[in-house]
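Subject: Sanity check before I submit

Could someone independently write out the structure tokens for this chain? I want to compare against mine line by line before I put it in a report. The sequence has 885 residues.
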Amino acid sequence: MRETPEGFVPPVEAPKVSETLHTASVLERSHEAALLGESFEDAAAALETVEDFIDVRAKLYAHRFPSFYQVFEDIDSVNRSPFPDSEKEEEKSRLLDEAELRSRAFSPRVADLYRGVISELRGNAYEPKFEETRVKLADLIESGDLDVLTSTTESWEVKLNRLDTRFEGYLAGRRALDKREGNLMPDDVRKARQEKLNGQSKNPPSRRNESKPSMDEMDRLKEGERAPAFWTIFPAYGGYFREQSLSVWDARRNTWVEPSYEYHDVQMVPLSENEDKKKGRINFTVHSELHANQWVSVPSPYTHGISKVECAFPYVLQQDQNGDVVIMVQGTGIVEVKVVFAPISQKIHGPVDRAKVKVPNMPVQFSEETQQFIAKIRSSKKTKLAKAWALAAYTQQHLTYSNDSSLNAIYDSDPRGYFGSIDTHQMADCDVSNTYFAALCAQLNIATRQVVGHSVKGKNATGASEIHSGTGHAWSEVWDETTLRWERIDATPAGDPNLEEEQTKGSQQKVPGDYGKQEAKRISDEKLEALRKELAEKKEQLSYTREERELSRVTGIELKEARQIVKEIDVAEDTRLPNGKRIVDVLSRLFNAIVESRKVVVEEYDSPVRKAEGGEGIEEIVRHKIGISSGDSDPVSRERIEDEEDVEPSIGGFDLYIIGDKSGSMSSTVEGEELWKMQRRAEYLIFSSLHRFQRALERAGIPSEESLSVRTEGISFRGSGEEDIDLDKPLSPKFLPQDKVRLWHSLTDQGYSNGDVEALNYIYGQILDEQALEKKGVSMKKRLRLVVACSDGGPDSPSKVQEYAEALGKLGAVVVGIGLTETASTVPVIYNTPYSRGDIAKTIDDLPAIVAKHLVAEAIRLFPARAKESAKAVIESTIAEFRRV
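---
Independent answer below. Compare away.
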């Protein structure tokens, strides 16, 4: 059972803070117009640009110093953007501010050239710390290499060649020299160091409420040295692990302190079920052996929250007002603890009481150079966070990384004060440099606090990362008044081996983690891929036809699926007869003839009129005589007979029902064609053709009460039960987008057995219900009905099929059974009755034409008796088209 320890203040609910504001990168903003617009060409061009960018970045990653070359990628993105020149310059300045902070990830000589390149890109003079840097920088400028690397006209192929030939070898050599110098020491010193390391405890120290910045030669391990691990992390995870935040500067003792604490229970987070090692979204366990009954800080990354604690003894887990976690295990001696972490969606910077965010009081006496820089930043940078980034860059450039412990006493006793002494000697490690940075910020009224913890990298032979005396690290957090969050900024100068990136050719960080890359506005690999996908989707969307988009919009299906459906309908409508003619064209000619034949010619009386107006025989002799007597040679006295089109009444209607087979065998393939797919294609063809027939009837101007209405229905069976009948297209004169999608999905799903009998029963019931309405007095037109039943095998009960065929025939319906391929050779035999007929599609490709043939055989009955003679040629020619089917 967990108990609150004596002295703990009751939990205080911290006010909620606003979400972090995410500002789009240059690349994202450059392509906003393409994403929002309706131009296929713009979307295609933007996609090509982004894909080229991804390719370039991959090639940069294949180099040994990708972080160094990132600045050229950043500048290239801005230079190629569509922004005005003034905005480009502002964007480049901001990117260079952030890029400058990356120098801490390099060895001293590499960092020196890096800062020199950035100064040259700014147009500023630079004073190198190494003479070789001065020579190299002058050579790059004189040869025009820097101009090439920032040019918008040079290809990246040329730029990559310059990086290979002018940078890779030089940087590798400088880094090797830095590494060799960093590990140089006499043998006796090396031996003494290892003995001291061997004597260190493997148990983490107890928590303190203060931290004094100081330098110590033992703070960083040399190559080959090992120290006992306080904590192990498995699977391996690296980067920043915070333990304690301190917000008050004690100028008398030159020490960071936290005067008081407010504790509350830790909010646990669930374990991730979708881990992604590449993105660092993994669950991991931090393991240690602690002294019982002591408060110990739990090293915690910004990217993860605690999911659970595994411990055999009672323990108390608490979190202070800064978001830092402590644990105490009750018991005796040494106790084992495992803390399980899970990834969270947003980096944690701790709960915040904004009223307690204060600027630390840090008395300073800076040099004139530093004061001038502070004044420049005060006037040139707009936000406090932008000012802080610039001050951090100055700290890294102004100071040199050092662990020389002899400087501690000098800094504490210098009459110019602690910060004046650092400003003069310009030597500092992580906590000293970040304290100096905090003093710079205080001059501009920027609230900062120091965070102590660990910088973890690599893994041991067991695959675990380690936290030990050599991983201790300190950094800063700056209060961002815009987002109301603490923003991590590490102002440590270049030279800290724990912060130096592994410059391994062909790979990025091998161990996932939060390594604090200062690239807030640079587009990440994940966002870059998301942008590529967005543009690819936009391009694809704009490549769709209006019909495809409308089908997607109305039905809610994906555009890809809409394209498949429209494509299949197009293919269906392009199905041809053996003579090469399209079935839809042949059907259309017949249907148009039916529409015209439904119009009758009658004579209408309209007189009297003059002869000149079309009058014929004299109708009114008296009026004619009076007119002649009056001198009118063509009086209004004649009759005129006019022909006028009218619609023959009681036209009736035509209903087509198609029964689809979805038994398991329909999934088989015959001659490369899947049976279910060709069946669906045949239904699309017939339903589309009859839908156009209906629309032609409507456009003919025939009154609705006298019109010939054409309705279609599609059902299918998955099995022999009533519940196995699917209504794919309701009986209707329309062929709606929803019908097309329903057919697409339904006729794709396969069942398990035959259901011919139940399907015929379903349609029989429908027709019976309609005729029952007519008997009740509901006016119903006499309708011609055709039922087409497809089956790829014999029905379970041939006699039942024949019974329903007879029953349907007595209701006035014509039933046609079509066997699908030779495996259904019994189908024509079963359906060959006085009330029905059978057919077979010997190859599945024949199915659309066979269904159309039987449709034609019944549709010619829609010609009125009086018009059949005049339509004889059309009827005969249409029938002739299908003779070879």
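---
OP: Matches mine. For the report I'm noting this point. The two ends are 85 Å apart (CA to CA).
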